[in-house]
Amino acid sequence: MVSVMLLAIFGQGAPAFDFDVRAGLRVRVAGVPVVTGSWLQYYEDGWKKGYYSTNNTPPPVKKLDADTYEEDLSGYEGVATGKITYHRAGEHLQVHYDLHWGGDQPAKIELTAGMISAQVMQNGSLVADGKKARSPAPTKYIVPGIGERRFSDDASDYRFDAPLANVEVKTSTPTTMFDARGYDQDYAEGKSLFWFGSLGLDVSKDKPVSFDVDWTFRPRPAAEAKSASIDMTSLPAAGVFTPDERPPVIVPKPRTNQLKFDKPLVLPGSYDFPAGRVRFWDADFLVGLKRRFEIPPPDKKGATIHVDGGVSKLGFHPGGYQITITDHSISVLGEEDEGLHNGLRRLALLVFPHGGKLALPTGYLGSNPQIQWRGVHLFVGPEARGFQKKLWERVLLPLGFNKVVLQCERTEWDCLPNLKGVPGYMEKKELAGLFDDYRAMGVEPIPLIQSFGHMEWLFEKDQNLDIAVNPKVPYTIDPRNPKSKETITALWDEACDLLKPTTVHFGCDEVDMLGFPNDDATLMTHLWAMQMPVLRAIADKHKSQFMLWGDKALAPGEAVDATNGDSPTQAIQRRAALPKGAWIADWHYKADPKIESFLPSLQLWKKEGFKPFASAWYQPENVRSMDLAADVEKAGTLQTTWCGYFSNEKAFVENLNQFSAMVLAADYSWSTRYDKVANLEYDPAQVLRKMYFGQPRPITPASGTQLFQGEAKRDLTATDLKFKLGEPIGLRSLLSAPQAPSSVDLKVNAKGKHVAFALDTLDLCDDAETIASITITGADGKVLHTQPIQYGRQVRSAEDSGMSAYADRVEGLSIYELQLPASTDIRKIRFEALTSRGGLRAHGVVVW
Description:
By secondary structure, the chain is an alpha+beta fold. It contains 13 helices and 41 strands. Helix content is 19%, strand content 34%.
């Protein structure tokens, strides 16, 4: 959790580095992140219990003088306290920790003094206490754990000599530094980091911790900015763009697939409907087709295709469908309206380019959803309506989802006037419109409003603290206060009157995670027993089904994880307070390939008279195992997202791994196929990217211009687009290629609307970091387009296996295409570095 507390930038005569203590220590040198965060956590020896973490409760920051800032720590009911002081002195950054513990039993502190960018330091050397340490270059590790990841024995003086800067860090007591690349912890996932700090400081009531860290940053002189200009060879060439005529991947996997792509039915664009125009044909099939292809005018000489379809009793579950295609006809039948929609959407996705025309395979396809309750969990916000409409129409409806749980407490409710004006909250009328959109799409929308714990939203701006269990750490409302019942009831009355739901989700996960007195499980159960009848009365009053998360009513041993029920006795009492027949979102996020690991909790809920649905997150093995366990127990599935409180395309792009997991969830929950994720015939991230970002593509090959350095002597690379420059054009990176120019102008002579690049970078960079720009200039010297290039959006390093949101990945390269407003003469393409790292490289450019 990031708390935007402070941004302190130092300059004017000092070395060129700055720091901020927003969510811990962050340091940039020459604009490049060197230290990317810090935190500490108090815990019981042996990690039996976590007491307090600055990650969960970021401390407030205050400025003491021009160069000094202080964080004031207080957690676990004021038992864990302390101060962290940051003082800038020339090239030094001095950090002092004064940490206290008021508990009767001693505790431990894990102190992460800094997460150091491995990408910045890996091309240098490391010395620990005057002795040469193991190289910081990437290494493969065999044994799990920290052991072989350590760079040296614990030391008090570490010195990096790296291309960007010399960095020295001294500590008052010996500390640990280890390679966290590929380490099995959330903070290391997908990142290039070295962990630095103390793994276990002893603290007690009589023995506080005093700890000092002195950072020194000495930037190396920046290379002089240089420009280069290259006269490109512009060769006219046929086939710079070739339509992809491969059979499309079918997700979810159908029950029966007898389609023959080698015996296609060519679509001339003319259809007739002997039994009357098929319902949803235009909205589902034709619109879906136009999203994928540039549709040519009807071929007047082609044969008319006969089309029939409708709702039929197929013996499938609702949503199932069958498609039959002959050499002159198309038939789509669905089980209920949902099935007809699904069939026509699938038909649009089966179309493929064939010899310059559009075609369908002939044969039969039958698809029957094995799990009938298939949902996703999303948030709301000012941009949610437009974004979610696009997400569902392009991705989630074609994948077969039929439920959505919308976490919508952050809305401008009339009954909570003291929260008016909180940034990012959604307008009521827009929320109502979003629910109407879902019903129009045939999707059941379920409002989720946290109504017990996770109530930070209710206490924004220090409001409503009188109904918090702990006003000092406002997180959970107190059912003992009658005003608590009045507030929640009024809120749900307003929400139900507005949204007309048939099911209501009350949240109720992790209720006592923060601010709960002495972690008292008995008190937690008592308050739970008071709050559940209040929530049940709300559901009954509005004739809605009752739904909540299940973790607080599962004891350790009753599930694979998310067992926050404290003990079997407490968990039993909490389950007894729930209405029989309630829907339980049984969430477990462990990436366990064993399906049987996820059966016990589903079986327990069913045995005791509840209706569970398996709720997974983004880890592929978690999704597969949870969904297949749901099939075994005939439960539903819910694919959750946790990427901030506001739903928009920015959050989508920043968390593509969570949304690409929806592709897996759609497949496993519909087909219940047993294939391992690694053995699937598709990459879920690429399926998601093409469905969401895909633009209409030409169906005939396009001629255009190949750009080459010097004389083109080599064959072109066979990709979706054809690329070969010879040696790649590379920009300067202080980390990898300081001798390269900081900008390169390609002088070209080409004409077209599309400009496509084969790109990569020399360096791994931060997600969404803007590393370069590409500017295209026309024949009259007018700039036609300038495109910022962001890491993870248009490009990635060849060694980074992640997806580029706006580009295809082919053999490690990102194939990124710019579209100009119209076909135009192009005379110059400029690549310019915008940061000291990145090292953008262009391996090929084509124009058509």
